[in-house]
Design brief:
This protein is of the alpha/beta class. The protein is 31% helix and 19% strand. The protein has an 8-stranded parallel beta barrel with strand order 4-5-6-7-8-9-10-11, surrounded by 6 helices. It has a 3-stranded antiparallel beta sheet with strand order 12-13-14. The protein starts with 14 loop residues before the first strand and ends in a 16-residue tail after the last strand. The structure holds guanosine-5'-monophosphate (5GP). Residues 53, 55, 131, 158, 179, 183-186, 188, 219-222, 240-244, 268-271, 289-290 line the site of guanosine-5'-monophosphate.
Length: 351
């Protein structure tokens, strides 16, 4: 007989952060930098734990250069060649602390990963990314990477439940990527009927990871800076974004004109567009679980980053968290039935 879990699981849209009395005078007093020591690599990292996703219109070298100026991180997509990586590393040494080399779990991915890491010893982060992090094959790949690269920090996912977070950490991963189905261009919930509301996934997975001295990334589902603040409040150590960073100059791809409006193409890494572009390069099990959309061109990502980091500082000020690290301790979520007043939502700017 199928079991039904009757506990209510929540998404970002179901809650708001409750304001709390605080001694902070201004947003400028808030420190968003975190100093993290990773459980298995034993390495340390210092920066603002906001991550650009390893999608080919988001996790670009150009994005990494801009985000690194803000001490933010980019998981570089896996479709750059070894030569392109080498070229980038040669001219951007200072950015290498803020990027990860992405890998799937195929033999090709393994060869490519080894070549990049051998050529660029300063690249210290590896992101092992599959749509479904529950397979034994994936766990074995994580073990294999850990064995070959004992001092590299391994990000791995995606999963949404505590027991799998624990298994991956015990298999050698340092930071577990959490999220199945919340992404802006993800159709897994429609195609497969599988998923987990992101806020609850983060709360539960953070608890599991922190119990072992590991860390997590909340991956997907952030639609505005407030959602990022909620993910950190829920216990995420890092928050990864795709859609919120798409459509910018740094996103690659051409600008398209539609009825006089400038647009850019954005698509899931398992969409038909990505599959066609990298035919043979995208693993079969991810087939077509992604959308393709045209989104308004948004200019330089600098402005968007200011908006995001400003929002985060504001969340910390309202809740009385002097440091981003303190946000979960200061967080009380209120369940709500409405997020915002929509009366003027159709024709106003966000700013
Ligand atoms: P967003 O920030 O746009 O809501 O979510 C970004 C995340 O969506 C990515 O980091 C990745 O985990 C996930 N994603 C990207 N492309 C696809 C896809 O084609 N299918 C699915 N299921 N998820 C995707």
């Amino acid at each position: 007989m199928p079991r039904i879990d009757n506990d209510i699981k929540l998404d970002f849209k179901d809650v708001l952060l409750r304001p709390k009395r605080s001694t902070l005078k201004s947003r400028a007093e808030v420190n968003l930098i975190r100093n993290i020591t990773f459980r298995n690599s034993k390495q340390t990292w210092s920066g603002i734990p906001v991550i650009a996703a390893n999608m080919d219109t988001v996790g670009t070298f150009e994005m990494a250069k801009t985000l690194a100026k803000h001490k933010c991180f980019t998981t570089i997509h896996k479709h750059y060649s070894v030569e392109e990586w080498y070229e980038f590393a040669l001219h951007n040494k200072e950015v290498l602390d803020f990027v990860a080399v992405s890998s799937g779990t195929s033999e090709n991915d393994w060869q490519r990963l080894q070549m990049i890491l051998q050529k660029i010893p300063e690249a210290r982060f590896i992101c092992i990314d599959v749509a479904n992090g529950y397979s034994e094959h994936f766990v074995e790949y994580v073990r294999r990477v850990r064995k070959s690269f004992p001092d590299h920090t391994i990000l791995a996912g995606n999963v949404v439940t505590g027991e799998m977070v624990e298994e991956l950490i015990l298999s050698g991963a340092d930071v577990i990527k959490v999220g199945i189905g919340p992404g802006s261009v993800c159709t897994t919930r429609k195609k497969a009927g599988v998923g987990y509301p992101q806020l609850s996934a983060v709360i539960e997975c953070a608890d599991a990871a922190h119990g072992l001295g590991g860390h997590i990334i909340s991956d997907g589902g952030c639609t505005c800076p407030g959602d990022i603040a909620k993910a950190f409040g829920a216990g995420a150590d890092f928050v990864m974004m795709g859609g919120m960073l798409a459509g910018h100059d740094q996103s690659g791809g051409d600008i398209i004109e539609r009825n006089g409006k400038k647009m850019k193409l954005f698509y899931g890494m398992s969409s038909a567009v990505a599959m066609n572009k990298y035919a043979g390069g995208v693993a079969e099990y991810r087939a077509s679980e992604g959308k393709t959309v045209e989104i308004p061109y948004r200019g330089n990502v600098e402005d968007t980053m200011q908006d995001i980091l400003g929002g985060l500082r504001s969340a910390c000020t309202y809740t009385g968290a002097g440091k981003l690290k303190e946000l979960p301790k200061r967080t009380t979520f209120i369940r709500v039935t409405q997020q915002t007043n929509e009366i003027f939502s159709s024709n106003t700017s966000e700013k």
